[in-house]
Design a protein that fits this description.
Layout (H helix, E strand, L loop, with lengths): L14 H8 L6 E2 L3 E2 L4 E6 L2 H4 L19 H6 L10 E5 L5 E4 L1
């Protein structure tokens, strides 16, 4: 993974940031799981309006897409899934599709 796109420490949300995101949590869409010979995958689609309230430092300044988020960060956005999932890519040009393995 490109270390430039991953932080060393999670940037946790403040209470007010988390409160602004709560209204979108029921609109987060989770794909079914799919797999290859190496990994199990799923993708998570965030509502477009949610992107407006996600802190700017959660985005890659070069691409404008969400950067690779650490587990505490994506859970803070309201993404809920079992333990062990790793955010490894954000689909472009749609910055609201997060790919997990």
């Amino acid at each position: 993974m490109d270390s430039k796109h991953r932080r060393k420490q999670p940037r946790l949300l403040t209470d007010s940031e988390r409160a602004r995101l709560e209204e979108f949590q029921d609109s987060i869409h989770y794909s079914s799981r799919y797999s290859d010979d190496n990994f199990e995958y799923r993708h998570v689609t965030l509502p477009k309006n949610m992107l407006k309230v996600i802190p700017k430092d959660y985005f890659d300044t070069e691409t404008g897409t969400l950067r690779i988020l650490m587990e505490d960060e994506w859970r803070g956005l309201g993404i809920t899934q079992s333990l062990g999932w790793e955010h490894y890519e954000t689909h472009t040009p749609e910055p609201h599709i997060l790919l997990f393995k």
